[in-house]
Amino acid sequence: MAGDYPHTIGWIGAGRMGSALIKRVLANGCDVTVYNRTRAKAEALVEFGAKVVDRPADLADRDIVFTTVAGPKDVIEVTLGENGVFSRDDICPRIIVDSTTINPEASVMLREGAAARGAAVVAVPVSGNAKVVRSGRLTAVASGPVEAYEEVLPYLDMYGEKVTYVGSGDEARLVKICHNLLLGVVTQTMSEITILAEAGGVSRADFLEFLNDSVMGSTFSRYKTPAFVNLTWKPTFTWHLLRKDFELGLEQGRELNVPLPTSAIAHQIVVEGISRGWGDEDFAALLELQAAASGRTLEPENVEIDDGLSG
């Protein structure tokens, strides 16, 4: 199988999402070497076939390097920093595939730094989390030089269900920001209508069962239903991360002269939740904030719920 995928792969970032993606690539017989700031997380992938290095610079001899890190400072550090993949004079990767949601300034810095070394950057944000990856239903959006995109596409196809190419520049990053604005607005709206139904005597489980089976239901609403019903806020995407993406989106709205009034309101609600100490919880706890605003105290309903990703 390895012969079908001839590139050597480097991967920076072995957190929840990175690890899930790395396992899918390894399962296809690819040659993958991993760096993670906390080495133990990278070492957990050795049993699946990964090799581990101590510095991003140790991945400079890889053909393609994927980055799944937290934010713009991390991306710049692991690529253009003192020990980054571009720090060696003798060699560097030909393509960087970056899945981080970053601001335009950091994206330009990364692209220009890579170009100075003769390398290309393909931006590939994704929609989903580690469980979505494991279910095979992850979707991705990509942009960058078309030749580089076509070269990395066989590996992107391993991610899950669908990859959409949207342009030769940074278009994919804007698409992901738009996606996450919708993520926050939809979750706030789901919270409002769920609390309204419960206030009128309808259990959350019953209301969301109806919603999910209606034309208004979605993969997302079904996936978040167990958390809404049983009040489990183990983080898949935190309030802090959602706030960052709202602020990136609102900045883009100002620059492009697109008013975003609904997103602006949802952003302020997220800021309030963080001020109440929920920043490290899953953002679906917007339900709790809506309940508090409605003078209600929620209790888990302890109902077994299918999240739609287990099949």
Protein model, in words:
This protein is of the alpha/beta class and 311 residues long. The protein has 2 domains: 2-169, NAD(P)-binding Rossmann-like Domain (Rossmann fold); 174-293, N-(1-d-carboxylethyl)-l-norvaline Dehydrogenase, domain 2 (Orthogonal Bundle). Helix content is 48%, strand content 11%. The protein is built from 12 helices and 9 strands. It has helices at residues 16-27, 39-43, 72-80, 104-116, 130-135, 146-156, 171-199, 204-213, 219-230, 239-256, 261-275, 286-293; strands at 8-12, 31-35, 51-52, 64-67, 95-98, 120-123, 126-127, 139-142, 162-165. The strands form 2 sheets. Strands 3-2-1-4-5-6 form a 6-stranded parallel β-sheet, with helices on both faces. The chain has a 3-stranded mixed β-sheet with strand order 7-8-9. Helix 3 (72-80) runs parallel beside helix 4 and helix 7 packs across helix 11 (261-275). It is globular and about 70 Å long. The model has no long low-confidence stretch (mean pLDDT 95).
